[in-house]
Amino acid sequence: MRIISGIYKGRRLTSSKDLSIRPTTDRVKEYIFNILQDFPQDKTVLDIFSGSGGLGLEALSRGARHVTFVEKALSSITVLKQNLEHVQIPREHYAIVQKDALLFAQKLNTTVDLCLMDPPYKYPPLQELIETFMQNKGLNEDGILVVEHEVINPIQKENPHYHLFLQKKISRSFISFLQYR
Description:
The chain is of the alpha/beta class. The chain has one domain (26-180): Rossmann fold (3-Layer(aba) Sandwich), CATH 3.40.50. The protein is 27% helix and 28% strand. It is built from five helices and seven strands. It has helices at residues 26-36, 54-61, 74-87, 101-106, 126-135, and strands at 44-48, 66-71, 94-98, 112-117, 139-150, 162-170, 173-180. Strand 2 (66-71), helix 3 (74-87) and strand 3 (94-98) form a beta-alpha-beta unit.
């Protein structure tokens, strides 16, 4: 696992020893950020299910102003902190919130320009999480929500709260890009 592009390009990241945690592959990360292009530049980002921080760190490397990492597992937060220290990200550019993703979305009190969600493959409340996040106005007006989810756990393509403007299948994942209607 590494940072693909930007000011921290090439930095190796540590991943968790917990085999139930599935870090975002470099291939998926590259696809996401090739679609986003310069969008993360000077933007606020939310990395939900951040794990070891690969997506949020990539956004910081590409010029994001601030990333909030949301992760429930203390073991993942420990690895995330090691990666932030290793890459030498200044403290003012990130925050770490230890909380369940759905509870975080239910009590959302901020908006961001970009939200990256990479839930575990077996995450039944994915649709509920997306709808809660969108209903609670988690994104700024032109914000983008990117969700990596398993093919057998699809999200609604038609929804009153968002529109799915791009979706690609990579291996056993869908990468879905959403915006407000």
